[in-house]
Amino acid sequence: MVSKQTQEKYAELALKTGVNLQKDQALMINAPIEGADFTRIVVRKAYELDAKDVHVSWGDDALTKLYYENAPDEVIADYPEWKVKLHDTYAEDGAAVLEIRSTNPDLLKDIDPSRVAKASKAGAQALRNFQQYIMNDRITWSIISIPTGDWAQKIFPNKSKEDAIESLWDTIVKIVRVDNDNPIAAWEEHNAALITARKKLNKKNYQKLIYKAPGTDLEIALPKGHIWKGGSAISEKGITFNPNMPTEEVFTLPHKYGVNGTVSSTKPLNYGGSLIDNFTLTFKDGKVVDFKAEQGEDTLKHLLDTDEGSRRLGEVALVPHESPVSQSGLIFYNTLFDENASCHIALGKAYPTNLEGGADMSEEELDQHGVNDSLNHVDFMIGSEKLDIDGVKEDGTTDAVFRHGTWAFDMK
């Protein structure tokens, strides 16, 4: 098992670089019950950093499965008001939010996907105000992962649970740079590199991106005033934080009506405890008009049918194939990791902060600028060593952006 000292370094990284917890700030944590020991380390260190309050909401895969197997439909389709108030109260108080994510990707594979879709939609509708705090960086937030047994054995199926967990710990520690003598300094250097990359893309000011790969022939228009982001972010109060750890992407928003062509997935998508794999989507004027999947097609249909915005894109992200996550050679069945191994796009809501002045715009103004809105924001992977991307400028000239899955120009 990874040492307690290493876990403490990881916890400190999550608090100081992830959410960048401030003195007298509250912290809200969502964590798996299997990760109680690590979570207690995080809580202790948060109080050592003078957090005024730390609240932990525990998740338990076994209880979640029992819930979906037994709860009546009217309960599944309802999200408790007390949970809404809990989230809103902490957000309105300016709390930091840390998600410690570790979900069994096969947890709900035998559950009727319509029940999962009902619950997901109810939760998204109820927590819409809370999500505005997250999507607009009004508070600091971060997502990290730790190993749990079922997830680890999905990645390392030929190992015992104990050995699989140890292998996954070792892998995560390397990917999030906790194996460095000073992980915080290593992340400062990494964030600086991503800032350089996004500055170069913002200077290019592409009007459109063209994707070519086996099974993919896609054009994505970018709205006027789009902003490339990546690595660290800055909250409404001016606090620098890292929303995702790991992160290897630079990303922006597409024009909700400007996506045309077909795209194929290159990695499985774990959505709501079920896997969707080997799927293709066909877009016309920004909307998915056709789809198919070798695995999880019903789940994909429920995702697309959540609302109007779930059939449109809210994010386009570039990740070179040589990223540390990709070079691990593993499929993680966990979007936080897999999206940082591969170029990806997201169905659903766009981040308003990816548009000049977007964080201060009304929903109507965002729509007029081509910014998608939805209850969902679901990333899926489309990148590989076979992906080429061209960027089209305002004058019609074209640059090679990606060739064979990596940057076609110097990003340093």
Strand content: 15-25%
The amount of helix comes to: 25-40%
What's the overall average pLDDT, rounded? 96
Taking pLDDT < 50 over at least 5 consecutive residues as the criterion, the unreliable ranges are none
Principal-axis shape: globular
Radius of gyration: 20 Å
Helix-strand makeup class: alpha+beta
Please indicate the count of domains: 2
Distance between the first and last residues' Cα: 37 Å
The biggest beta sheet is recorded as: 9 strands, antiparallel
Number of strands: 19
Helix count?
14
What do you see in this structure?
The chain is α+β, with helices and mostly antiparallel strands and 412 residues long. It folds into 2 domains: 4-175, Thermophilic metalloprotease (M29) (Thermophilic metalloprotease-like, 3-Layer(aba) Sandwich), CATH 3.40.1830.10; 183-407, no CATH class. It is 34% helix and 25% strand. It is built from 14 helices and 19 strands. The protein has helices at residues 4-18, 36-48, 61-70, 73-76, 81-92, 113-126, 128-135, 149-155, 161-175, 183-204, 297-304, 324-327, 335-338, 363-368; strands at residues 26-32, 53-59, 96-101, 141-145, 208-213, 216-221, 233-234, 240-241, 250-252, 259-264, 269-271, 274-284, 287-295, 313-318, 344-348, 377-381, 388-392, 398-403, 406-407. Strands 5, 6, 10, 11, 12, 13, 17, 18 and 19 form a 9-stranded antiparallel beta sheet that branches. A 4-stranded parallel beta sheet has the order 2-1-3-4. A hairpin with a 2-residue loop joins strand 5 (208-213) and strand 6. The longest helix is centred in the middle third of the chain and has 22 residues, at 183-204.
